[in-house]
Amino acid sequence: xxxxRPPLERLRDRVATLGAPLCLGIDPRPxxxxxxxxxxVSGVESFARxxxxxxxxxxxxxxxxxxYFEAFGSAGWAALxxxxxxxxxxxxxxxxxxxxxxxxxxxxxxxxxxxxxxxDGVTLQPYLGEDAIEPFLAFPGRLVYLLxxxxxxxxxxxxxxxxxxxxxxxxxxxxADERWPDGRVGLVVGATAPGExxxxxxxxxxxxxxxxxVGAQGGELATALVCCHGTRAPGLINLSRAIAERAIGRPDWxxxxxxxxxxxxxxxxxxxxxxxxxx
Amino acid sequence: xxxxRPPLERLRDRVATLGAPLCLGIDPRPxxxxxxxxxxVSGVESFARxxxxxxxxxxxxxxxxxxYFEAFGSAGWAALxxxxxxxxxxxxxxxxxxxxxxxxxxxxxxxxxxxxxxxDGVTLQPYLGEDAIEPFLAFPGRLVYLLxxxxxxxxxxxxxxxxxxxxxxxxxxxxADERWPDGRVGLVVGATAPGExxxxxxxxxxxxxxxxxVGAQGGELATALVCCHGTRAPGLINLSRAIAERAIGRPDWxxxxxxxxxxxxxxxxxxxxxxxxxx
Lengths: 279, 279
Hints:
Two copies of one chain form a homodimer. The first copy, chain A, has helices at 7-18, 41-55, 67-70, 73-85, 103-116, 134-137, 156-159, 168-179, 194-203, 221-228, 241-247, 253-278, and strands at 22-26, 61-65, 92-99, 121-124, 143-149, 162-163, 166-167, 185-189, 209-211, 236-239. Chain A is an alpha/beta fold. Chain A has an eight-stranded parallel barrel with strand order 1-2-3-4-5-8-9-10, surrounded by eight helices. Chain A is globular and about 55 Å long. The model of chain A has no long low-confidence stretch (mean pLDDT 95).
């Protein structure tokens, strides 16, 4: 049964029901697949499907990174279309595309991601300003997650530059918060810089944070759990490698992935309960 | 015959031979096609092919914007693959993809664009720092054009923010110039803000500028011609709508597109000659 409520409402319910804001990240590389799968586009598709089947039930959202499909050109895009179509009802679908182009071109990307692929949310670049964002929000109710403080080693080269005494990431966060105050624009803030994450949450209490970098990239779960939720929208903590790497190398890899996701779900519930008791 | 020299060398020769740095931009929308073509992916592919056939001979580079193909999903990507494969020898192929992701994901985008689609150059976002750029430069000799000052109305929202008294766009330009001093990283600087364009050229004399915004978006040709070339690499002036719109609405649309491109080529040669005589 299709749930026709707006994505934000579905997300709120889903996070409440699961008791944890787990986002299942799907970033499959052909050189990091279970042994039984071929190192090609078909292996990548099978791994993506297998992870979704095994772990989407524990997830408030499934985040598909377009790069890992696009690497195979049109065949990869066809695989992405099939994987997306077969995600079971329940979790939101976020396309982690990090697109950003001038208005007329942004409209075409929005058609691709919000239109054809029917994403509930997409990740976008902030550098071109609002022209690059608005065409995605023209799809009623859909969500945008704007890159603010990313989880990669060179993130700070631009994002930490000081603009009137504040890091650029903070300025972008405040700009997005003021420009789109209705909860539909969240912010991508990595857990790999926990000080930044905490500071950004203090600066902008409203918007949801989509937090990558927990697990394989070393970010702390507790800080991410405290900080991801905004007053206007529930946040998400993305786990990709932390789940996929528990599956690779095991003959029963789907079972291992499902177990890893359930383990993280329990950890989040536990930490959340502790946090709830102490705050 | 395949020209196996590095893209930068081929570009230098091509601009010198043509006497003008014309970049043919291909951004076909299904609602803006010649009447004889269907308003779908097949019409978009035919228009793209027709423009390339008619005008690539006047162009130093052909710039294909991925958004206009991606809007049709895997079918659009298949069309992009065919269009790219059939560009005749001579002009460089630039994929205007504006991608930007953390290292492991950037590697997959580089595989898609530099690998499978064999682009000579791509456009990229600066917001994530060097991790998002290096995987593309790992393809020997290939070129990157980093977004610095874009041509859209909201460009200034981030790009004009002052960082220690200088606009962010300038800081990004100087950073790229110092980080990659070998001529392989050019900068996208729109002609719609001619003051910015001139100022940026003074700040960073080295890198090539890829200049959009001349023609339909109102930017001045003369300023673009003076400013696009760097001391280390020849620049490019992109024309998309200025050529496509001369073709749409005409039964002999290919001939009209070829004529429009030749007209711009003549204008550029004329202005260039004048500039050469006076400087």
